[in-house]
Amino acid sequence: MHFQWYPGHMTKAKRMMQENIKLIDLVIELVDARIPISSRNPDIDELGKNKARLVLLNKADLAEDKWNDAWAEYFKAKGYSVVKVNSKKGGGIKSIQGVIREACKEKIERDRKRGILNRPVRAMVVGIPNVGKSTFINALAGKACAKTGNKPGVTKGKQWIRLNKQVELLDTPGILWPKFEDQAVGLRLAFIGSMKDEILNTEELAAELIKFLGTYYPDVLPEKYAVEPDEDPYVVLHQIAKNRNCVVRGNELNTEKAAMLLLDDFRNGRLGRLTLEYPEGVC
Ligand code: G4P
Questions:
Q1: pTM, full prediction
Q2: 29, 51, 154, 178: which has the fewest C-beta neighbours closer than 10 Å?
Q3: Would the CB of 86 count as within 6 Å of ligand 1?
Q4: What is the pLDDT of residues 109-122, one digit of tens each?
Q5: Is pLDDT above 80 for 239?
Q6: Residues in CB range of 213: below 8 A, 6 or more apart
Q7: What spacing in Å lies between the alpha carbon of 1 and ligand 1's midpoint?
Q8: What is the residue with the minimal CA distance to atom 36 of ligand 1?
Q9: Alpha carbon distances (Å) from 85 to 18, 75, 88, 99, 191
Q10: Separation of CA 87 and ligand 1 centre (Å)
Q11: Is the pLDDT at 146 greater than 90, yes or no?
Q12: What confidence score (pLDDT) does residue 66 get?
């Protein structure tokens, strides 16, 4: 899915966040484990200040686990609670309710001192488009969860999903924009398929991915497509087209088809678990 942001969308998204954030105790922020910084919203810390914070490294199944652990440490050192999650298959989901309680324990203690004993903690899920917010909410809530609010005769209000007696989740996630004006960020978002491919055409994007893989994961392309490494990414793309029989009329190689194949294989984890940015050097 591609998402096009205009200033109007951004203002509206921010306004909705500002309204909803008043109602909650905890912000559950989803980032893509392959690009945990590039998939964050630039304003999230400002929007979420004074709230308990939980960062989920989602799609952890697509990223290298040693880097997932390094990123978890990185966010923990900044004071966030962190969980590695595979929302699609349910990995990490079981621990979430406990982590939410733990992240909100100061608030629960404050309530207790004031004699408020049974108020559930309220949370909302936020993140950029395609990061996995709906998949995560479904995985966490399951089918058995009762929705609260919007009872007959009651003014239409927010819908809350009651996870248990102690935790409620706002059923609509907050959608926020990424830092796409930064070229390097835009490129990484395009690699994972969260940005319209129009910043670069498909072949240019594939060439950039080939360059990245040549530097950080030099064995991946030779193993997957039986290609020889080459300084020129377009030479490698030609080899992929040849070895995968991407041809048009006659016997002409179709490098655009090869580029799509490569990007698709990468995005779906068929090149293995790959991380595109690393905590060192990230401020
Ligand atoms: P959003 O609400 O934040 O916009 O994201 P959404 O849940 O729609 O998820 C976007 C895509 O990411 C979906 O794939 C979803 O299956 C996939 N996804 C979400 N979480 C994970 C995860 O932890 N691991 C992996 N591997 N994929 C995840 P899709 O291509 O749109 O649909 P489909 O492939 O599920 O049919």
A1: 0.92
A2: 154
A3: yes
A4: 999 999 998 889 99
A5: yes
A6: 220, 221, 271, 274
A7: 10
A8: 88
A9: 26, 15, 9, 13, 20
A10: 8
A11: no
A12: 97
132 C-alpha vs ligand 1 centroid, how far in Å? Answer: 5
| Confidence label for 282 from pLDDT (cuts 50, 70 and 90) | low
Average pLDDT for 86-90? 96
Q: Is the pLDDT of residue 152 over 50?
A: no
- From residue 127, alpha-carbon distances to 43, 56, 82, 100 in Å are 11, 10, 15, 17
Q: What residue has token string 């064995």?
A: 219
Q: Which residue has the tokens 């058995």?
A: 144
Atom of ligand 1 nearest to the CA of 173: 2
Does position 38 have pLDDT exceeding 50, yes or no?
yes
Beta pairing, strands 167-170 & 160-162: antiparallel
What domains can you pick out in the chain, each with its CATH number? 7-175 (3.40.50.300), 200-283 (1.10.1580.10)
